[in-house]
Each structure stands twice: as structure tokens, then as C-alpha cells.
Batch of 2 targets.
Target 1
Amino acid sequence: MDRSDPNFKSLSVKCREDVEKDHEEFASSRFLSAANQGRNLKRVARDIQEYKSFIPCLKFPTTGERITSRTKMEQEIQQVYRKQFSIQRLLEAGREYQIPLTLVFIDFHKAFDSVEPGAIWESLRRQGIDSAYINLLKDQMSWNHLKGHDEDHATNPGIRINGRNLTHLRFADDIVLAANHPNTASEMIQELVERCAKVGLQINTNKTKVLRNTFATDHPVCIKSGATTTTAIEDVNEYIYLGRLLNARNELEPELHRRRRAAWAAFNGIKNTTDALTCPKIRARLFDSIVRPALAYGSETWTFTKALDERVRVIHASLERRLVGLSLSQQREREISIEKTSDAYPASETLYSTSKRGSNTKKSVRMAIQELTARTCIRFKSVNDGYSAGDSVRIADMGLCFSDVGRQQIGVQDVSLSEDCWGIGTAIHELMHALGIEHTQSRSDRNSYVDILAQNIDQQELINFALLSSRLWANLVPYDYGSVMHYSTDSFSNKDDEQTILPTDRNFIETMGSLIPNFYDFDQINEYYQCYDSCKNAGQVANCANGGIPNPNNCLVCNCPMGYGGDFCDQRPEGCGTTLVATSRWQKQKLTVKFDKKDDEYFTFCNSWIVGPTNKTLQVIYEITSESTRREICSFGCYEGGIEVKHLEDPRITNDRDCCLDSPLNVTTTVNPLPVILYTAATTVTYEFTFRYL
């Protein structure tokens, strides 16, 4: 509909009001459902605001009911390709078993302008379309107007679209008649002509085609109109059906050429845009959403061989090379030299610049740089935003949270941190990427620690779960579920709250996706940049307890794991917390952490120790005291608050964090003293402890 049309404004307003109403009802239902299920309302609100919620609107065509079962949903989606696959299978069976086959592909003449309105409304009802939308179409679309019966259309017939009057409307259809003999095909098409005439449809004999295999006779397929007129339908050797080029021998080669041309045409359509974009991730998303579908259209019905797979790979690779501006020779040279090229920035002077951002993001970046500088040998030096004398990291707001991994040697390398990239943990995550650190769940040994549920992952995001070769990335530290480089259990889910990563030890479900940088995060940077060499060559170094390591900035003091403090990691960290002395009898104690708004941290921590006699085993039972608090902090990653009781033998590793406890948890450990870490990002959190030694 043209904007100058008098009905345009009213239809636009009506649609906008209906969409707003639908969204309000949907959001209300989500909040009500979350409240009934005891889920975190803050998380639900954030997901709705960030458009992470999806409405399952696929319906059964017969009843109009929503499809909620994944199996049934996949079956309905397969309907899109089933007709195309059926025709291919029919052609293949005819060739294999030498069965004569005559296919008639039907095309209707002026389908939209000829069909009776009642047939349209009935068809929409059968497809399960809501009656409100059908009535809206009835109100806004005048058939007299469409057919050109008013005064204006007497001189300008047709439908006005974008300033042009279209008088010959053609709409695609997918009807195909199959028969063993041309005479049978003629009878079938004649019956179709008579039935279609009852609803105002007329077959276009110029565009209706016949495709037959080598075993079928050459007898013509005809349509009779009236008592004497007979029209023979034209025979063709190939025909485009549902976007797929079919031929009698069912060969895929011609279709592959079409897909290649379509992909390059799609790429040329966005070439000017991708060339102007500086953000590689946005360019990649644009490529994946426009070019890849053009190349892979209908591939669900292809029979892949090694040769075909290689052909598609070569086409895809050539398109990607053009996207990044590389020739084939340049790519080969790059592959040869990539292992010889360091992707690390100079540890003594990593240059960075900042563009205009919000105060919260500035605080996150400032604190992240302070933490990295204090715990590693990395030194950041600020330069102007226009710096171009060498490689540097530019921290900017590009609407997303992302960074390339390692020094790209392209001059200015962007690290995107938007206002939604919350806290010091996200800032350290992206800066660690820029420094060369990969995701934890992509390590070569990850299959021993997590299960990747690919069926629950958004297909465009599967690349984020790719397994790294041990040749490309050395596992510098033990696998740590609590690393800021580890995804949460629902990352890139194709459904709300659907799990995409499951730890082999299910106790760590809430630990993954942490926003708290831990000991091994800094440790692997020190290993990667060989920061510890300074202390190896020092004459005197600190004797660190409880898994601490001499700080490469000052070898006389230690980098300590969480829960331990002092210069040598042999003391309880300063600040909030207490020391509880265990006896052989049960004791009860409540531990509380309250968020301090004046604290220059995104989390407020309380570090307590439970101490028992030497060589005694400690037993602790703990639970959260408030159900409302549990609901508020419960989340994957425990980013609102939680507890960590460090009962594992490795004092450096992140233990299983808990923020969703609905029943007491019993821990028995030989770790003594036993660190208990409470933290919060907003609310006051209290846990009740019962403890003793055995």
C-alpha cells in the first residue's frame, strides 16, 4: 500500500496499537508465570528489555492452535521443504526404477485479482489466522477499489504500490500434478481447471509447463476450453519449483550454479554496506543473514557427497574472502605465516583508547584495567582516540559486547562494551580476548567437563562453541567453571531459559557465567605473557601459602586465590567477615553480606573462615534464610549474589557457587581453615550455617 493511500495511516496506527497491546499482554504473562515458578523477576525484565524472549507463534494449519512441542514444531517446519523433497524423490525413483513420469507445474492467471474474497477469508481461517486480523483486512482492503471500479481507476486501473499502478498481478503457487502417462495428466489438469473456475481462478497456459523423464511418452498434455479449443502445454527440460531448479535426471549441478549466482548477487547487494562497516561482528551477522541463506537455500533436501561438500565450501570461502578483502593468494600466505606471527600485545605497553561512553562503562573499564595491572605484568597506556602510529585497542560502544581474540595487527582493534555490558567481569572478559585469551568452554579438553547441547543453540551462534585444537590453544591452567571466560548454561539459547551447556558435575550449573574474575583468569594471562619469568630470576621471592603465586609486579608478595588474604595468602581477607571456631558439637551461625553503595566495586564481599583442630574434618550445613532473597538472586552465573564454600582440595579453583538453594546443602571437607565467601550486587543476603568438626 502506498503511503499516499488514505487507508495507510489508519492501518498503520491500528497495527501499532495491536502490537503494543500484544507485547504488554505477553510481558504481563511472562512476569506472572515467573512469579508462580519462583524465578528471578529481574532476569525476566532484563530479558524482555533486551528482546531475548520469543513468542512461539507457529500454529497447526488445521486447528489454529499454537505448537509448543519441539518435535511437532520441527515437523511443521519440515513442511516448507517436504514438497520440494517429494518432487526430488519422485524424479529419483522414476530414474532409478525406469518409471515413466509426467509432471505438470501449474501457474494461475491473475490469481489475486481473480479469486473471490470469500475463498480468501475461508482459506485464512483454515490456516489458523486470528479472526481479528481477518476482519482488519476486510475493513481496510476494498475489493471494488482493488479491482479498479472507482472513478480514479477508470483512467488508472490496477493497484497503486509505491507510486505505480500494477495492472497484471502474478502470485507464485506450488501446485504440481504427477502422472505416469500424459493422457492421465491431461485429465487431471482438466479437472483442476473446472474446480478452480468455481472460485474465480484461471490457469495461465503460457506459464504452466510439463516436465517428463526419458521413460515417459511424448504425447502432449492438453487443456480444453469450450467445446472446440484445445491448448497443448509446453514441454521443458528444467523448471524452477519452490526456488529449486529441477530437471528430468534430478542432477544437482545446475542448481548449484544457481545458488552460487544467487549468493554472489546477494553479496553484491550488501557490498557497499559491508565495506563501510568497521565492526567485523556486525559485518559477519549481515553476511550470515543475507548471503548464506541465498547459497544454502533448499540444501536441506540435497544429497551431500564429499565432492558437493567441497564445492559448497569453496564457494562459501570465496565469499568470505571477499567480505574481509583477501585474495586467495593472500589467504594462503596468511595461513602459512599465522603460526609464525605472535598475537600478543607488548606486555610492557599495551596501548588503548576510549571513545564516548556512559559513566558505568567507564567505571567498568577503569576497574578492569586496575585489576589486570595489579595482578599481571600487563601495562596499559592510554592514547588519543585518533592514534594510528601502531597497533592499539579502542574501547567503544558498538551496541554489543565483543572483541576479537588476540592482536589482529590491523592498527586500531575495536573492543565493544555497551551500557548493557555489565560490570568489571564483562570488561575483563573482553579485554582478555583482546590480549589473546580464548573461551574456557572452547578448550580442547572441554568435552571432559561440559556437554554442549547444539540443538538448543541459535544456529548463527554455533561458531561461539567451536572446539579449539590443542595446536592452536594451549590449556595454560586447569579447567575452571567459574572463569569469567566461561559461558553461562543458557548462553545463546534459541529458547528462553533453554540450557546450551551442562557441566558434567551438575553442582556447577550456577557457577558458569561468572562476572567475578578469579585466580586462574589472571594466572593464565601471566602464563601466556610469561610474566612469572621476572620472579624466577629474582633473588628473593615470597613463600606463598594456600595456592598463592608470587606477584610478577612484586615478587615479595603473593597473588592469592579468593578467600585468602595477606601478603602470603595465610590470612583471612580484610574487611567484612568473621572467623568461626568449630567444635565437636553442632553450632549455628548466620552470615550476612549487605551491598555497600559507597564501595567502589560491583560486588560487596564478606570473607569468613571456619577453623577446626589440625587434621580434623569439617562438616557444614548451610541454607539461605529468605525465600524472597533466593528468588531475587537466583540466576545462572549467580551475578546478583551468592555463596561459595571452598571445600575442594585445589584452593585456586572456583568451587560450586550457589544462589538458588531451596534446601540445605551438606558439605564435608578436609580443607581447614574453610573459606566461606558471601557476595552481593544489590540486596542483603543471609545464609544460616550449622557446623562442627568430625
Target 2
Amino acid sequence: MLEGDPVPFGGIGGASRIVTPSDVRNQVFSVVRLREGYDLAEVDGFLGRVETALSRLVRENEELKARLSSTPDCTALEAAPSPGARAVRIVEVAEEAADRIVAMANKEAETIVAQARRRADGLGRDALEKITELQRQAQETRREVMERRLQDLRLIVADFDAVLRQCFHEHTEHLLALLDGREPPGPVADASTREAAPQL
């Protein structure tokens, strides 16, 4: 393709500059993953048509310049539409398409960020609820364990009280028997009594 004279350009690629068919051919757009956007194939096809149109306009401009330099009377040429104006218009259309792509990308990025924040807030609430539930379950388990231990302690105290009462009763009987001059009851006294008793 013919490169020719550059065409004024002021949007794609940065600050105001001039664009050539080579610029259009080499223009690369950022690929955004995991979300909707312009079809890359359609964008590439459109840029290809822009490149072709620019090349044709540059070639026509060169031809017109050559004819103008060789023709003394250029009134008819001055009245004809300017190829440069047509090229500028094509570039403006390309700029508008690029602006739409950027605007849509920004909007989709904002939407993704908002969704991510909402999801994070939801996860935070879920985590807090789970932590609260776990704390409640832990407190309930601790309460049940304490109740079981307290019940076991009550049973131990009750058994100890019964044994203590029995021992006190036996000790009292033993003392009364000694005071009355009787053989004190008990496992030892009973055994000696049985050994001393006459055999029938």
C-alpha cells in the first residue's frame, strides 16, 4: 500500500498528531477478558477498511497534486471536494468508534468493580454470621459440659454424704456398745463372736 502524505489526526494513540495508513494498520486495541465488549473481528475489519480508504485518498491526493502542478488553470480542481477533508472525516469516524469502545470499557469496568464490592460485602456478612453461629455453638457446648460436670459433682457429694452418715452411725453404735459393756458391733466383733459361739 502507498503511505503518501500523512493525514491530520488527533485522537487514537495519544496527543494530536498525524496518521498514516501504516498507523491504522498497526493500531492495537487492548483485549478485555471475561466481559462483553466490541467484537474484535469487527473492529479489525473496520480498521482495515479505514486503512484502504486512507491509502486510496493519499494516492488520489498525490495524483491531484501532480495534475495541479502540471495544469496552469486549477480552478476546476479547487472546486472539487478535498481528499484531505474526506480523510479527516474518515479519521473522525474512527475516533468516534474508538471513543465508544473506551466508554463501554470504562462502564463495564465500573460495573465489574461494583459487583465485586457487593460480593465482598456479602461474603463479609456471611463470614460474620458464621462466626456468630460458631460462638453460639461453642457457648452452648461449654454450658452443657459445665452442667454435666456439676451433676457428676452432685452425685459424688451425695455418695460421700451417704458414706459419711453410715460411718458416723456405725461409730456411734460402737461407742454406745462400749458404754453399755456390750461387744461393739462390726465386722471384727461379729467374726470373733461367731468363732466363740458353741457349735451345734
